[in-house]
């Protein structure tokens, strides 16, 4: 028990220095859309820790969203999206040991969509989000979604729902790092939003949540000691509704 506690403390101390990450590239059906194209991203690679802040929506604090693309990415309903993360905006392809994210930052990866009149609109408050993807902990192997992300060199792949209406959407793609989450605030939330125009589709009306509001600091998937054998892990937010 003592050695486990010391190991956890060491991870916290070393990992907190080189910790961070930014979602900075989108692929549609395998086609690279370009660095920061269709994305809203800051230069700052650090986390949000307050689940009640508007910064939990699409990031933006403490550094402003200095890269706000005027491009809306075209993607078909049912199409494949790949999100690519890196430690900083210039760490891809380098020998940065914390790229795409420090290996201590274990946790889930989640994606949400919100339909909007204009995907380039500046105001992201009051939107209704529905979850389209989640990956947490494989309790049989002990592998977290972040471990898979690192093995895939920063890439996470999932599909857009085929049944949602055509139109413009924001894609909120998020990592929750739990290495310091034994008390709140401790979990680290990394997210950026991509701007999509989804074509085709259907007429589904999935259940939605709001940000802030979807997460509480007391949620078992947000305040948790991961330095133990976990028989289960509850991913925060609503269930996938598509």
From TrEMBL:
One of its GO terms (biological process) is cellulose catabolic process. Residues 20-231 form the Auxiliary Activity family 9 catalytic domain. The keyword Hydrolase applies. It is found in: Secreted. Its EC number is 1.14.99.56. Pfam families: AA9 (PF03443). GO terms for cellular component: extracellular region. It catalyses: [(1->4)-beta-D-glucosyl]n+m + reduced acceptor + O2 = 4-dehydro-beta-D-glucosyl-[(1->4)-beta-D-glucosyl]n-1 + [(1->4)-beta-D-glucosyl]m + acceptor + H2O. It is an enzyme of class 1 (oxidoreductase). The keyword Transferase does not apply. Residues 1-19 form the signal peptide. Belongs to the polysaccharide monooxygenase AA9 family. Has a modular structure: an endo-beta-1,4-glucanase catalytic module at the N-terminus, a linker rich in serines and threonines, and a C-terminal carbohydrate-binding module (CBM). This is AA9 family lytic polysaccharide monooxygenase. It comes from Sanghuangporus baumii.
